[in-house]
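Practice record 12: protein with pyridoxal-5'-phosphate.
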Amino acid sequence: MAWHLSVQVDRDSAVPLTAQLQNAIKSRVEDRVLHPGARLPSSRQLAQDLGLSRSVVVEAYEQLIAEGYLDAVRGSGTHVTRKLPEQTAASPLLDARPASGPRWDLRVGIANLSSFPRQEWLNSYTKVLQNVSREGMDYPPVAGIAELRNELAGYLGRVRSVRAEPAQVMITAGFAQGLALLSDSLQRLGLRELAIEDPGHSGQRRFILDTGITPLPVPVDEEGLDVAALARTGARAVLVTPAHQFPTGVMLSPERRRQLLAWARERDGWIIEDDYDGEFWFDHGVRPTALQEGDPERVVYAGTTSKVLVPGLRLGWLAIPPKLYPLMERVRSRQDQGSDTLTQLAFAEMMRSGLLDRHLRRVRSRYRSRRDALAAAVRESLPDARICGCAAGLHSYALLPPGTDEAAVVHGALRRSVLVRGGQQFRFRGPPGPPALLLGYGSLPLTGINDAMAAIGEAYEEARQD
Ligand SMILES: Cc1ncc(COP(=O)(O)O)c(C=O)c1O
């Protein structure tokens, strides 16, 4: 290892020394180990450190300057360039962010960040900070602190009819970590495949693939997941969004719920219930309870604060069947040392004090009026569309008439500075599905809904005339 720069070369390698040095520096620049503007040792110093001829280092530096990784500044040596494009390790779970913001962004998964109850959070956080004991600041239990698991077990039972003892609850960094833990645990149980809904969350499919498990897409129809098709895949585990299917918004019908639970029993299988927006049910009358209620021994229930509060908290929870819990706890303990204690305590305090319920009542009514405004705007600006999935959640699914060029509508909307996703992007297999648009309204102001839908309506008319 060189003294002035943490790189090394292998003299026994078949790769030429110049190329080795060049690659080593390049990867450190790309990984931001070497920061923009960092000064590199002189070629003489580095050659001496590595026991190389100076010409090897000079050649490597020159090549990296030519490729735009380094800058040579007369009189002040060689530096890492400041002009490298910004690199972020983009999660497949996130929809790619456009370089410059559109006027209206209707992508789903964009929560209303401005509705975060800052004052309530601050009050809860201050209170727990004042009261937390010295011992309470030690490493937390990996599965979560008792206060939050107790609160959640009660809350989930009350609000979503989840049947779970606090000992079955595990706190995670959102559903993303829950899914990673589940994927790892299922593989340890010998499962290599996980059935997923089609259409579904394309980012989740990619994420599952990256964790080493094969996602098997299963069709969704107007009753939700096609359980007969699921049975034909031979999979022993499935990831579903029963309350408000992502992205179509359909609710798993009572008959399909029964079939799905029966499938799990017969197959000795597991169901992962992603209840990502289960708190947002707007209509009176039947409100679907958690599927987990039907079989707590086979259904892993997953919830998150990403819609209820904001994604930035990175806080989620799993209610895990007792048989699976010890394995998941072991897997978790190898991954990290638990979730941030103070965030857990503050969230538990918001639940205990009733502040969370109050916040939910407030945002539910705000989202309901946006949902209504969206439905009215679709009727007005896109009268040929059939809107579905609007009983719950923060997005609706608009089916366009057969034969509509969905991509042309999406592009036409973007030309009018409205970012909206088409349905095809969420399909994995089979012939293209009916043309559709996903209309996320979580982050739109009421005024924006009419404006955005008018632009989409124009784009639709334009696509029809082409
Ligand atoms: C289908 C679906 N599941 C889960 C989540 C939440 O994931 P996380 O808790 O990691 O933010 C989202 C996004 O909010 C989603 O769209």
